[in-house]
Specification:
By secondary structure, the chain is of the alpha+beta class. It is built from 1 helix and 7 strands; from the N terminus they run H-E-E-E-E-E-E-E. The protein has one domain: Cystine-knot cytokines (Cystine Knot Cytokines, subunit B), CATH 2.10.90. It has a 3-stranded antiparallel sheet with strand order 1-2-6, with no helix packed on it. Strands 3-4 form a two-stranded antiparallel sheet. It comes from Nicrophorus vespilloides. Keywords: Signal. This is Partner of bursicon.
Length: 141
């Protein structure tokens, strides 16, 4: 009985300490932002027989989501693990579609294309227009 009682007291003490530590977090202190970023984009175009016709590339300015969101783990008598986990991730709340023009196009031999209307390529790109904290795994926005 002494060991079981000691274990129970330590378990309760650990839960109490864990609960106090989780309460020390400042609620609402999130840092999820929509930030500008540059990427190098490469797009290849093939004919109906699968042969490479041209490759176009360029540096493109796009938005990205970056930052931190409040997540927590707290004791729970309901869950099988004994802890309730709430995880939040920084991700897009809205995607904007843009048309990007790639201006460096080359034939399969690596020769730059300058005529025939093949010197540029327009592609559709979706990028974050706004970022927010969402519950991890929640894709039903």
């Amino acid at each position: 009985m002494g060991i079981a009682r000691l274990f129970f007291c330590c378990f309760i003490l650990n839960l109490y300490i864990y609960t106090v530590n989780s309460l020390n977090e400042i609620p609402g202190e999130e840092n999820c932002e929509t930030l500008p970023s540059d990427i190098h984009l490469i797009k290849e175009e093939y004919d109906e027989l699968g042969r490479l016709q041209r490759t176009c590339n360029g540096e493109v300015a796009v938005n990205k989501c970056e930052g931190t969101c409040n997540s927590q783990v707290q004791p729970s008598v309901i869950t099988p693990t004994g802890f309730l986990k709430e995880c939040y991730c920084c991700r897009e709340s809205y995607l904007r579609e843009r048309i990007i023009t790639l201006t460096h196009c080359y034939d399969p031999d690596g020769i730059r294309l300058i005529g025939e209307g093949k010197q540029t390529m327009d592609i559709k790109l979706k990028e974050p227009a706004e970022c927010k904290c969402y519950k991890c795994g929640d894709f039903s926005r």
